[in-house]
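TICKET: design request
STATUS: open
ATTACHED STRUCTURE:
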């Protein structure tokens, strides 16, 4: 579904991505692991069209993305849930969800029903301003807003950041459920144990380069991954 080859991205003189290549097959959850500054968020922003690569290709279902604008990429079926949630705090829950469907035409009732089925708490608080929600509820809202675009590929950037352990488990259970509904997911996550537990495959990034790749179980047993990300 997604194929990234030899991707080079710069922030002015800083070489942030140094020729990374990876793929995501339809129906998979694939995780990108790495420390802060490894290039994970830069990768997602480049796929979404928010950053332009200096070199390399990104193909989604056989179509090149690197010359398209972010809204065109959303219309093709790629939606990103950003790091830090980036909800609109002064809008209601329902208004936030509607912003996620801006690229869709016609009724969005089916998408709303799906999101409210995943997150009943959002339905209860649909008329509440988003800034008054708890951190966990805001993360639910951010994921729900991404789902409102009815994507084929969902890019999740650090969905567990800042959440209590019990909420992290709930968020990852939801990620698994979304995937079981047929949605392909590219996951960026510092909680390596949880990410590898729900993923089929993974790639480890270090200073803008892929240094390891493999099945999730293989990576979980790898000495480098265990020492650097799993505390063992």
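STATUS: resolved
RESOLUTION: sequence designed for all positions
ATTACHED SEQUENCE:
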């Amino acid at each position: 579904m997604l194929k990234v080859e030899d991707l080079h991205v710069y922030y002015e003189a800083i070489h942030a991505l140094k020729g990374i290549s990876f793929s995501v097959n339809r129906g998979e959850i694939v995780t990108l692991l790495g420390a802060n500054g490894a290039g994970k968020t830069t990768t997602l922003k480049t796929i979404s069209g928010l950053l332009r690569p200096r070199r390399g290709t990104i193909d989604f279902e056989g179509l090149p993305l690197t010359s398209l604008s972010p809204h065109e990429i959303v219309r093709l079926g790629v939606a990103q849930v950003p790091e830090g949630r980036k909800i609109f705090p002064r809008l209601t829950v329902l208004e936030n969800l509607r912003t996620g469907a801006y690229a869709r035409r016609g009724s969005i009732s089916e998408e709303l029903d799906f999101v409210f089925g995943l997150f009943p708490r959002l339905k209860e608080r649909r008329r509440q301003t988003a800034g008054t929600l708890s951190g966990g509820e805001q993360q639910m809202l951010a994921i729900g807003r991404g789902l409102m675009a009815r994507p084929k590929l969902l890019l999740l950037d650090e969905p567990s950041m800042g959440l209590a352990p019990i909420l992290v488990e709930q968020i990852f259970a939801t990620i698994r459920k979304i995937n079981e509904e047929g949605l392909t997911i590219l996951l960026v996550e510092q909680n390596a144990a949880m990410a590898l537990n729900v993923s089929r495959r993974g790639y480890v990034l270090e200073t803008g380069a892929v240094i390891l790749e493999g099945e999730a179980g293989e990576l979980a047993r790898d000495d480098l991954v265990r020492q650097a990300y799993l505390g063992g």
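CLOSING REMARK: DSSP finds ten helices and ten strands in the chain. The CA atoms of residues 97 and 121 lie 14 Å apart.
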